Amino acid sequence: MPPQELAEKERKAVPFHVIINPEITLLGDARADFYEGCLSLPGFSAVVPRARRVRVAGWYARILQHEIDHLRGTLYIERMEGRTFTSLDNWSRFWNGKPVRDVVESLSNR
User: Fold this and answer.
1) How many angstroms separate the CA atoms of 58 and 12, rounded?
2) What is the DSSP-derived secondary structure letter of residue 74?
3) Element (H, E) at 61
4) What's this model's pTM, rounded to 2 decimal places?
5) Does the active-site annotation cover 67?
6) Less CB within 10 Å around the terminal CB: N or C of the chain?
7) Minimal CA–CA distance to 91: which of 101, 103, 82, 102?
8) Which three-class secondary structure state does DSSP give residue 16?
9) Shortest CA distance to 69 belongs to which of 95, 90, 38, 45?
């Protein structure tokens, strides 16, 4: 993934570690809206709003929220922006490379 895209998605490597009985504490109201997929629903993705900050920040906070949701029996489709649900083929054809905010605005104006 190009460095610019990594920066936009706030992604950086996270060292391996184990978390036991995690609890999420939100730190503020700021959120990050990005496309999210899951091996539980292969071939699809949707924009999912996540807290930008929990006890960790950025991409790692979103990943932790996704995985902790699994522990509670929740999939991203229960949190997604419904109009953004798409197959990976359609995402590649129509939305790849476009900022998420543009996608969400475009779909909400329909």
Assistant:
1) 9
2) -
3) helix 59-71
4) 0.66
5) yes
6) C
7) 103
8) coil
9) 38
Annotated catalytic residue, options 67, 78, 81, 105:
67
State the residue for tokens 């629903």.
Answer: 41
The answer to whether the beta carbons of residues 45 and 86 sit under 8 Å apart is yes
DSSP state of 31: E
Quick: pLDDT tens for 77-97. Answer: 999 999 889 999 998 888 888
Residue 93: what residue type?
R
Instruction: Tell me: pLDDT of 20 over 90.
Output: no
Which positions ≥6 away from 65 have C-beta within 8 Å? Answer: 24, 50, 51, 54
Q: Does 4 score more than 80 pLDDT?
A: yes
CA distance 2 to 48: 22
Instruction: Output Rg (C-alpha) for the chain, integer angstroms.
Output: 14
Q: How many CB atoms lie within 10 A of CB 16?
A: 4
Residue 28: how many other CB atoms lie within 10 Å: 9
